[in-house]
Amino acid sequence: MPESYYFEDLSLGLTAKFSKTITEADIVLFAAVTGDTNPMHLDAEYAATSIFKERIAHGMLAAGLITKVLGTQLPGPGTIYMSQTLKFRAPVRIGETVTATVEVAALHPEKHRATLRTVCTVKGEPVLEGEAYVSVPSRASLAVRAAE
């Protein structure tokens, strides 16, 4: 798989994945960066009284793994996020490995954009699903800029 794709390289069904085990440090750092100190994520006693019975990772922490795929793999460097839908299906617990998968679902050649199916799974089961709409660098656009 190339390190990145130009729009002209994309095809329907093309996929890329990234997996990461979520750690205590990931949750604490995410809370510090975002300011989301919901006790569901940080306080074991509080979380024990919840429907999940234990602390869970921030949903957006798992969703953030999608950006790793978009920005470094598919399409790759130069990709601009334009929109993202998310449906949270299940919690992510400390120590679980999340796999973010991105799949090309539609191509929009007039503006070098793509619609991508995005899903994060734990043990093969979806924890979140959505759709991203991105602007993708193209060889044609680079050639026009180089000629100017």
TrEMBL record:
This is MaoC family dehydratase. Transmembrane segments: none annotated. CDD domains: R_hydratase. InterPro entries: HotDog_dom_sf, MaoC-like_dom, UPF0336/Enoyl-CoA_hydratase. GO terms for molecular function: (3R)-hydroxyacyl-[acyl-carrier-protein] dehydratase activity. Residues 19-106 form the MaoC-like domain. The keyword Transmembrane does not apply. It comes from Neoroseomonas soli. SUPFAM superfamilies: Thioesterase/thiol ester dehydrase-isomerase. GO terms for biological process: fatty acid biosynthetic process. Keywords: Lyase.
